[in-house]
């Protein structure tokens, strides 16, 4: 759930009224003071913060559940739609470049070799999500 989908009256709730001083201070050090601030984070985002662990996330989940809310559980290895779209555009550009080279060299040995080399480097079997996941995993290193 994002800040935009949190009920308006809950967006002004100060976290210090929901959590222990220790947890409120941990969140405050990260600039998270209100419920609307908290709702912009995912489980993964909070898990990356210093001193946050399973127990802290369970406490946050329980408090949010009392208000009928929950944090998104976006998987860190799943690409976003924007990343998937970028992958599709990149694959399209590669295919268009290949088509242009084929058009220029139709019937030549060099053209056939170019096709084989280009397609050899492309995995045409995975879904867009799989290709995007692989692409972004490889480029984050």
Walk me through the topology:
Elements: H1 21-29, H2 35-38, H3 43-47, H4 54-66, H5 81-104, H6 109-120, H7 128-139
Helix pairs in contact: 5-6, 5-7
Characterization of this structure:
The chain has 141 residues and is mainly alpha-helical. It has 7 helices and no strands. It has helices at 21-29, 35-38, 43-47, 54-66, 81-104, 109-120, 128-139.
**β-strand number:** 0
Question: Helical stretch count?
Answer: 7
Mean pLDDT: 76
Low-confidence stretches: 1-6
Instruction: State the separation between the terminal residues, measured CA to CA.
Output: 30 Å
**Rg calculated over all Cα atoms:** 24 Å
Q: Write down the secondary-structure element order.
A: HHHHHHH
> What would the principal axes of the Cα set say about the shape?
rod-shaped
Query: Major β-sheet, in short?
Result: none
Q: How much of the polypeptide forms β-strand, as a percent range? A: under 5%
What oligomeric state best describes the polypeptide chains here? single chain
What structural category characterises the helix and strand content?
A: mainly alpha
Helix content: 55-70%
Summarize the structure.
The chain is mainly alpha-helical and 141 residues long.
Fill in the keyword field for this structure.
7 helices, 141 residues, mainly alpha
